[in-house]
Automatic annotation (TrEMBL):
Source organism of this protein record: Pseudoramibacter porci
Database matches in SUPFAM superfamilies: GntR ligand-binding domain-like, Winged helix' DNA-binding domain
Protein name: GntR family transcriptional regulator
Pfam families documented for this protein: FCD, GntR
InterPro entries: GntR_C (IPR011711), TF_FadR/GntR_C (IPR008920), Tscrpt_reg_HTH_GntR (IPR000524), WH-like_DNA-bd_sf (IPR036388), WH_DNA-bd_sf (IPR036390)
Keyword RNA-binding set for record: no
Transcription in keyword set: yes
Length: 226
């Protein structure tokens, strides 16, 4: 019985995560637990437990008598997210630069290059900022995957999901896609040269640039709402 309940909670959790990732849940809108359970055929208790879990992880806010809504990231949360990203990515790329001569290192080097190629293709053809953002996520995730630390990867994915919508919006900014593409090319060049100080400098610059854009987005949204 307990195992079945956990499976139902996990099913509801995964469904909600996909809804968040795909933009199916509207920002600023409250969803009734009762109505949501009816609309998507979930039992109330597993759904509520899944929402509580997502509330604890910072994806949703559960408000008594109102239901749940998408969690709006604060300036502090965005700043902390990019601080962690900077630390993780710098470490993982340092490790990759030291392991380029290994089979695993060559595999991930090629994987990262393929993500850059995909971004270049999108930039030069459709200019689809959402598709570009997806490849951007895959590029950065691949850095973390190289190290093979499951705990780090799980935590990193959660961080990236939280800012995924803002990341997509940031690539609507004129010139940002080309700028990010060139940043990635420069990062890979530094990795190939095993230039650790350059890797750290480039990751620092990219994360600070992305953070500044995202902070501007939420400030603008806040002003528009007021």
């Amino acid at each position: 019985m307990m195992k079945n309940t956990q499976m139902l909670q996990d099913k509801a959790y995964n469904f909600l995560i996909e809804q968040i990732k795909n933009g199916e849940l509207e920002n600023g809108k409250f969803y009734s637990l009762n109505q949501f359970s009816k609309d998507f055929n979930f039992s109330k208790t597993p759904l509520r437990d899944a929402v509580l879990r997502l509330d604890e992880e910072g994806y949703l806010d559960l408000v008594p008598s109102k239901g749940f809504c998408i969690h709006e990231l604060s300036e502090q949360e965005i700043t902390e997210t990019y601080q962690i990203r900077e630390a993780f990515e710098s470490y993982c790329l340092e490790e990759l630069s030291e392991g380029l001569d290994t089979e695993r290192g060559r595999y991930y080097w090629n994987k990262l290059q393929s993500k850059i190629d995909a971004q270049r293709e999108i930039f030069e053809s459709t200019g689809d900022h959402e598709a570009f953002a997806q490849k951007d996520y895959e590029f950065h995730r691949s850095m973390i995957q190289y190290v093979g630390n499951a705990m780090m990867l799980s935590f990193y994915r959660k961080l990236m999901y939280r800012i995924s919508q803002l990341t997509g919006l940031s690539f609507e900014k004129t010139g940002r896609m080309e700028e990010a593409l060139n940043e990635h090319i420069a990062i890979m060049s530094a990795v190939k040269e095993k230039n650790i100080s350059k890797i750290n400098e480039l990751i620092f610059t990219q994360t600070r640039t992305a953070k500044a854009i995202n902070l501007h987005i939420i400030k603008t949204k806040s002003q528009d709402q007021n």
